Amino acid sequence: MGFLALSGCAAAVADPVPVASSAAAGAPIVIHDNRGGNVLRMMVRRAELERSGREVRITGVCRSACTMLVTLPNACLHPEASVGFHAPRLPGTTIIPPMVDQMMAAHYRNGIRARWFAEWRHSLDIHSISAREYVRLDPQTRLCVG
Question: pTM here?
């Protein structure tokens, strides 16, 4: 089975669960070492990935806007992946634009959402956590199998 590699992101689960629909829908889409980017563009990409019906495997490093992909219903986080959060900002500045943090938060759940609002959305520094820590904070997230 082949993989389509894209710059990527990460998601995890305490007990890995296979995605039943991935074989029928085609090869998994791999999001690998994705450092984020424009939040609006990532929201469009997220919708495309969800509509694809294919498994989305987040591997390596997933930072910034990439973190919005972890909660896709067809996504899984590689057990060795790391996920990094920081305040959204205008490119090349330290200016945090209004409402962008809320747009990102719409894609976070449980303990991840709580940490986002409590600390990460205000920080210009990356706060990285492991895939397993992500799953501990958001047990709905799945670790990739195989």
Answer: 0.81
Note whether 61 and 12 are within 8 A (CB). Answer: no
Per-residue pLDDT of the chain (146 residues; tens, 9 = 90+): 343 333 333 333 333 333 344 444 589 999 999 999 999 999 999 999 999 999 999 999 999 999 999 999 999 999 999 999 999 998 889 999 999 999 999 999 999 999 999 999 999 999 999 999 999 999 999 999 97
62 phi, psi to nearest 5 deg = -130, 110
Burial of 146: CB neighbours in 10 Å, binned 0-12, 13-18, 19+: exposed
